[in-house]
Amino acid sequence: MTPDRRVSPPRLGGERDTLRAFLDYQRATLAMKCEGLTDEQLRQRSVPPSTLSLLGLVRHMAEVERAWFRRVFEDHDAPMVWSDTIDFQAAYDATRSTREEAFTAWEAEVENSRRIEREAATLDHTGYQPRWDTEVSLRMVMTHVLVEYGRHNGHADFLREAIDGTVGA
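The chain above was modelled as a monomer; its predicted structure follows.
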């Protein structure tokens, strides 16, 4: 992996700045775990019967970003990227995917999520989560997505180590 270029979250920041920074740090961590690998390595699966791979995680996080920002705050009916039925598991099947395809979709969703967050007046801004049929705050959404990245970056640690022995951060 290349040198760590992630920006550390503020030690004394306010709530919004801290949430934003931790979310961006986790996004950068996922990208870092994939650096320097070929498409074939990115598609390498963990252990049968799992379809989990680094590329699958990138695809899944594109779906998470879309489901929790775009679908909640802008378009409740926006289709998912890799599933017609809101099946988050479909994104994990990256057997025919490429780095370019997965990262292009993920980076577009991340930028859309950042825009939505920036445009919201406060963390109390609410949107409608269609899967739960309820209103949720931007604060809750940012926290939920942060937890998703934390969980899946743990998977990414193990996947990367299995590919080439790279560990850390």
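The chain has one domain: 15-164.
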